[in-house]
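thread: overnight batch results

M.L. [08:02]
morning all. the overnight job finished for the chain we discussed friday. pasting input first so we're all looking at the same thing
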Amino acid sequence: MSKRLQVLLEEDELREVRRAARLARVSVAEWVRAALRAGRQAAPASAPDRKLAVVRAAARHAFPTSEIGAMLAEIESGYGVEGES
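M.L. [08:03]
and the structure it wrote out:
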């Protein structure tokens, strides 16, 4: 269900929105909807404090690591020889 949203703009702001819509070859309404979508996508999904807490919690874990060539060789050795069951 669609809902109406009324936004009051100064005349110069509205003129710029109309110009941008005309350049994009879309209606003012479609241009505004696209701008609102882009704004929502650019907005952080959660607070920075929450993101930092998650990164810090992940950094506290220790995982085994090695040189990439050695890790790949170890992984491939686990596949076994073709034809083995």
